[in-house]
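chain below, 166 aa
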Amino acid sequence: MPNHICPILTILLAAAISHRTLAQTPPQDRPFTTDTAASNCLDRAVQPSINHARETFPDARRRFLAGLPPGYGLSVTTRLRDSTGHFEQVFVALDSIKGDRLFGHIASDIAFVRGFRKHQAYELGTGDILDWTILRPDSTEEGNFVGNFLDSLQTRLQKGGIPKPC
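prediction:
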């Protein structure tokens, strides 16, 4: 990937911004770009949020399998990778879970990777989950640990002068 522009921050923020309306509505994007070094730094900074999301996913999974209330939905955040080595972080709205396989559809606009599109059916393994979000009909959510971290980071950056995480 070129050193001058790296899409990871764009994708992390675009995919992690909170859902604001109904469960199947994709999030609003707040993208920006950065260089590879800053992207690598952000990956390290967000890792504790990813770890927490993975630790708590089994309960969200259990609730989904038991049947969420009407109007609720479970989305997971994952990275799509294309044949050129580019990746993009997206929401996948889940339709079903069978064993360690999750089935749903891409609920994010696609900006960088080739061969994927919004609303496309998508299957992933539980090991590919970076975050999860239970969306409620009143626009509130549970989970979204990575998204909340990135929202907070972007807000602090916009206000000016926070220490770099790396």
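The two ends are 21 Å apart (CA to CA). The beta strands are 73-81, 87-98, 101-106, 121-125, 131-135, 141-143.
thats it, cya
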